[in-house]
Amino acid sequence: MRFVRHVNKTSLLITLLLTLFGLVMILIFVQNTKNKLEVKEFQASEIIQLPEVIFSPQPALLPTPEPTFAPTTFPSLLPTFAPPPTTSGDYVYAFVTFYGWPDNGPPPGNGIAYPKGFGNPTLHDVAGGIGTYGDPVSFASDNNLYPVGSLIYLPHIRKYAIMEDLCIGCVENWENDGRVHVDIWMESDSATNESKLFDCMGYYTHKSIEIENNPPSGRPVDTRLLFNPLTGECLNDV
Fold first, then answer.
1. Which of 115, 234, 104, 105 has its CA nearest to residue 163?
2. Do 98 and 18 fall into the same domain?
3. Taxonomically, which superkingdom (predicted)?
């Protein structure tokens, strides 16, 4: 009987322990289930609700016109220069002769075809001048070759001359042969020794010699008379 009681007590203790163990397991299961539910609720609350995106149909694309570009002009970077002032006229070869009181006209004298007093762009009313730039010697020629008032320079006598008279021989030479011919006044008067005058004219005459058209000022000038009508002397050291 003592053994049976001992067994019953042991069985009862085991049963009690098993019951307690079962209760503990139930509590653990319940707690785990509760924790899982809380985790799911937390995860559900953390989900970001994205707004609903509504896609509308894409409109048709119109063709884009190609851009046009106007040509761009750039200013020239090269420096510009003004032309230098004229320092020399035009040199030509000319037939240079001389005339004076006896062979001027008709009638003989110192008259000129284009006197200043008649409104011509000349400097004298009668043939004259000393050969400077401001007071050039009168010369005759074709007015189609040398307009009235034209200026030339004669290096071989170192004098300027101005177109103030008409020369028939000069006109013929220019029209017939294209030959430049100028006839320069040589100082003389009614009392001049014609023979000495003509000799002096011949001394300075040249069939072809260089002269300068439209010369600038500043050329070498000799203001002495080529022929002295009072003494009949011809200057030969120009």
1. 115
2. no
3. Bacteria
